[in-house]
From TrEMBL:
This is Uncharacterized protein. The lineage of its organism: Eukaryota, Metazoa, Ecdysozoa, Arthropoda, Hexapoda. Belongs to the RRN3 family. One of its GO terms (molecular function) is RNA polymerase I core binding. It comes from the Eukaryota. One of its GO terms (biological process) is transcription initiation at RNA polymerase I promoter. It comes from Clastoptera arizonana.
Length: 243
């Protein structure tokens, strides 16, 4: 067990060598912890905080994550590049499937962060775009080519953030184009991953139609690459089934 103290409050993490699990409990003053970072003790506490969040990952309960985000939004102005590791561990947390209250807080955190510190826009968009590929679990084929209601809700939450970022951050459009291009699934990834990704790229065009030519060209070029890499026997089998 490790305890990181900050005033009257603390961060407590539990590790089990046998089961390799981490429980996350949050109750502390984040602003004080960040302000003390210049001291040797403060630096150690900051590093332990980052590691605790990273290790807990998806095990962090909605309530604890909600409190963390509220604390973080309360000190957005001081989250400069010196706190990049803290920001990064928050960005990699899966959030789109969580409660509406937490989702709104997380979206607010992302928008506040990028508005106050534009240099975080790139890594924020990168993480948002990675979610276009769907969940990490085995990709199931969509019924009638459409995502499930739960998946659609998650995708909508992602696009809501991207849409606002495009409006408030002037450089975000070029960054988005770069992120979408660089994050495109590898040619040999599962077909459903490509379907999910393309579905979301096309969805961007609903609120950013001026990117139509760029993204359609990208999709066509990528699909040509997939077709070239596909075994001829599989293509013939698919064509036979269609007939």
């Amino acid at each position: 067990m490790s305890v990181v103290s900050s005033g009257r409050k603390s961060i407590i993490s539990f590790k089990s060598d046998k089961h390799k699990t981490v429980r996350f409990q949050l109750a502390y003053n984040l602003k004080n912890l960040f302000s003390d970072r210049l001291t040797e003790k403060g630096q150690k506490e900051y590093e332990e905080l980052v590691c605790t969040i990273r290790d807990a990952g998806q095990e962090i309960k909605d309530y604890d994550l909600l409190q963390l985000l509220k604390e973080a939004r309360g000190c957005i102005s001081i989250l400069d590049e010196n706190f990049r590791l803290f920001v990064q561990v928050l960005l990699i947390i899966k959030w789109t499937h969580r409660s509406e209250e937490l989702v709104q807080e997380y979206q607010g955190f992302l928008l506040d962060l990028c508005s106050a510190h534009n240099y975080y826009t790139k890594c924020t968009l990168e993480q948002l775009v990675l979610n276009f590929k769907g969940s990490d679990v085995e990709h199931a084929e969509w019924i009638d080519g459409k995502p499930s209601e739960d998946e659609e809700l998650c995708f909508s939450r992602i696009h809501n953030v991207i849409k606002v970022l495009l409006l408030v951050i002037p450089m975000s459009q070029d960054l988005l184009i770069s992120c979408v291009t660089n994050s495109f699934p590898y040619l040999k990834r599962k077909a459903q991953e490509h379907v999910s990704y393309i579905y979301n790229v096309l969805r961007i065009l609903q609120y950013k139609p001026d990117l139509r030519q760029i993204f359609l060209s990208l999709i066509v070029n990528k699909l040509i690459g997939v077709d070239v890499q596909s075994p001829r026997s599989e293509i013939q089998e698919e064509e036979t089934e269609v007939e």
